[in-house]
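Most newcomers find our protein records easier to grasp once they have seen one. To make this concrete, we reproduce a full record directly below:

===
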Amino acid sequence: MDFIKPKALKEGDTVGIFAPSDWFSRRHFDEGIRVLKGWGLRVKYGKHIFERVEDFMAGTREQRVEDLRSMIFDEEVNALWAAEGGYAAPEIRSVLGEREIEHLRKNPKWLIGYSDVGVFTNSLFANGIASIVGPNIWGLTYWKPGSIAWLHCLLFGNEIFFPDRGEVIIEGEAAGRLLVSNLDSLVANLGTKYDPILHGDDKIILVVEDWKQNWSTLSRQFETLFDHEKFGRIAGLVLGRFSLMLEGSYPKWAKRQDLVSLVREKLLRRGSLPLVSIDYFGHPSHWHYNQGKLKEDNFSLPAGILVSLSASKRAKISWLERPTG
């Protein structure tokens, strides 16, 4: 499958803002919008993004589908950016049907977001379209300035290099397309027509992160991932932050768990491939972003782009192609 890379953005381009799931506070949302406008970008809001269904969704399913579909076909819109993530996102992933995918392959637009927005970026990967897994508009200003500057460079086609840090867990060398996702969102797509591992043949460098997950659920999800029918596509695995892990059912067992040991043990039972961990990608390591007082890195990563992974004395990720078209 030939991967489609959208073009770099430029000043004056328009970003379409859609809300696929959770409702959100206007204050933090507006702070993110000011960043985009400071970059010289125009913004266009989905018709229903400020709707609210009780304490859960930013509008009904039909309203959220209408907003995303209209942004896909809007000729003025150069990129699609999620306002916020949330558990209702899979409810509207069916908007990425044959007609929409065909249009995006002919008229590519960056789709930007993370957390549960992963159900969309994974769906695009399954259809050979690159996307950017990075901060949603709400919460964009919670991250360190360097992470925001990295995202600007990525979107505008400026040269960037991966941070020179990471822990090597299993040594090795690999190359493939970056598949970047919140683990829960990835597992939600497995076995469906939106499965980014099932559809395609290129080797994959998989990057996963998560937060507020039960350790027992996490263990089961990695088992599911490693037993995937096409797990052989995965040439290397990168662990981002797994923050604020919980456990309601097995608290004694959970106290003895750590992410590296849990994943390493499961992986080695299936063979061996390069495994590293990084501290510059993923959900925050504190509740409610600590009201923005304790900023962390969250470097946006372009899913679908070819990279190499070297895990020997240190972990190193390098571009094998330009991230933007």
About this structure: The mean pLDDT is 95. The first helix runs from residue 26 to 38. The CA atoms of residues 181 and 196 lie 10 Å apart. The chain has nine helices and 13 strands.
